[in-house]
Specification:
2 domains, about 300 residues, 6-stranded mixed sheet, 11 helices, disordered N terminus, 434 Repressor (Amino-terminal Domain), two-stranded antiparallel ribbon, single chain, Endonuclease, Chain A, about 45% helix, elongated
Length: about 300
């Protein structure tokens, strides 16, 4: 999902979360945006933009609003200041993704992923992007009119593949991203590109699963159904478990962010339930190798 845009402002995931926290504190205090604007010597339009996550918020403004709302708990104030800091850093972040226009709606997600410390991914339909081979990506994006492999780097498909491989560098960085992925068996039974693509992808999964920062589990058909079969989701974490979690789910025509709080915690509970019912890492590796032998 790209950041929502309004003029020269941008509404970010963390900005909206911070704004939502400030709205709750203001309404609990029984105050209006006009009161907030007066305390900041600003316009109500600016306060509305702050609460909507459209603009970054300075630390002095956070402290002034906390004083106005009678919020004196150091933990609460500190959490808001940390949210504001992270949001400001995300807004000004520059990285490899700026070179790839083909990221499209993934721009905001990739920015968060690049800053994350860990990701939990549940996928009932496709290999997660961080684990896909170039052949898998190419086959997945192929159309009936263009099913052959694309040969040139400047082709849109090759541009997309290059951006995906750049994302995967996070898994092997000096401070690597921790990835815990649970895959439904259907993901491994319905490969685009046929047996050759499947063999390469299964080999890659088995190989990369040996890395200490990567856990891959398989949820086999025989283990029954669960709520997660409704769709895929990722849980992105930036600090200590649960503190800054953002859940992201993706459907054919819709992208959904759940920004912290009980919503993100609900996704985490569901992920843990799925993982607990899935094959463990050792059993999953055996499953991958046995399936590879069948091809």
């Amino acid at each position: 999902m790209t950041a929502n845009q309004q003029g020269y402002s941008t509404s970010t995931v963390l900005g909206r979360r911070l704004g939502g926290e400030l709205v709750k504190l203001r309404t609990t205090a029984g105050l209006t945006q006009t009161h907030a604007a007066k305390a900041l010597t600003a316009s109500t339009t600016k306060v509305a933009k702050m609460e909507g996550g459209w603009v970054p918020i300075r630390d002095p403004d956070i402290r002034a609003l906390c004083e106005l709302y009678a919020v004196h708990d150091p933990g609460t104030v500190g959490r808001l200041l940390e949210l504001a800091r992270l949001d400001r850093e995300r807004r000004k972040a520059k990285g490899w993704w700026d070179d790839y226009a083909m990221l499209g709606t993934m721009q905001e997600y990739v920015t968060l992923e690049n800053a994350a410390t860990s990701i939990k991914a549940w996928q009932p339909a496709f290999i997660p992007g961080l684990l896909q081979t170039p052949a898998y990506v190419r086959a997945l994006r192929a159309t009936p009119a263009n099913a052959a492999s694309v040969a040139h780097r400047n082709d849109p498909d090759e541009e997309f593949i290059a951006s995906r491989l750049a994302r995967q560098q996070r898994l092997i960085d000096d401070a690597p991203l921790a990835l815990h992925a649970v895959l439904y068996e259907a993901v491994l039974r319905n490969f685009p590109g046929g047996a050759e693509t499947a063999r390469g992808q299964l080999d890659h999964l088995a190989q990369i699963a040996d890395r200490q920062n990567i856990t891959i589990q398989i949820f086999p058909f025989r283990n029954g159904t669960h709520q997660g079969l409704n769709g895929s989701f990722n849980i992105i974490s930036f600090a200590e478990p649960g503190a800054m979690d953002v859940a992201y789910s993706e459907a054919a025509f819709r992208h959904t962010w759940v920004e912290g709080g009980e919503g993100a915690a609900g996704y985490d509970d569901l992920f843990e339930l799925i993982a607990a019912r899935a094959l463990d890492a050792r059993e999953s590796l055996s499953f991958l190798r046995n399936l590879r032998k069948e091809l």
